Amino acid sequence: MKKFLYLWVFVMAVGCSNDDGPPPPPEGATLLFPLESSECTTGVSINEDLSQVTFEWMPAKNVDLFTLTVINLNTNTPQAITSASTSVALSIEKGAPFSWSVTSSNNRSDISATSDNWLFYNAGSQTTYAPFPAQVITPKPGSTVLMNSTNEVVLKWLGGDVEDNIVQYEVFFSEQNPPTESLTLTNEIEERTVSVISETTYYWKIITTDNEGNTSDSGVFDFKVL
């Protein structure tokens, strides 16, 4: 009986020592091309409106599949395609601003990892480009937030421009949709503190202007204050 017990303990110990634990999560991809805040001129023309651009990123560990997501920032229309490769060719609109990112996943884990989000213009016939529509950092669209001790919330965003010549952000903020109150800032400031009231929903957007008078509209975002 003791021999059997010792054998059982030995088998269990060996079994436990071979337990590898949960599968390793996938790593996030490092983006390569199109470059951040750039004009992409390498696309292959398909017709008057479209060109085919090849998106590229670095290999990442523990990844079975990559999902490329490309968003037309003029229309907020996304395209997504999944591939085991580290490059994907996609047909996109000429002369339009885009954001792109890559999500890594594997078949052994429920966890995924997302790369940085890069902006670029797909080359068109124009010789000058409007700024990229400002990207919201906080509050996240549709979120519920706490105001600080002085009944304020900080609005933060990220601007960008191929030619690096932004001169002004104009923030519209109010309880109405679309927002009506205008708050003008210089190009060096990408945040604004606003007074708020609890249990209220607010709407805001950002108009970005460059030194040639080109503008872009971020679209309207909303958040609720507890």
TrEMBL record:
Q: Which InterPro entries would you find in this protein's record?
A: Ig-like_fold
Name the source's superkingdom: Bacteria
- Name-wise, this protein is Fibronectin type-III domain-containing protein
Q: Source species, please?
A: Croceitalea vernalis
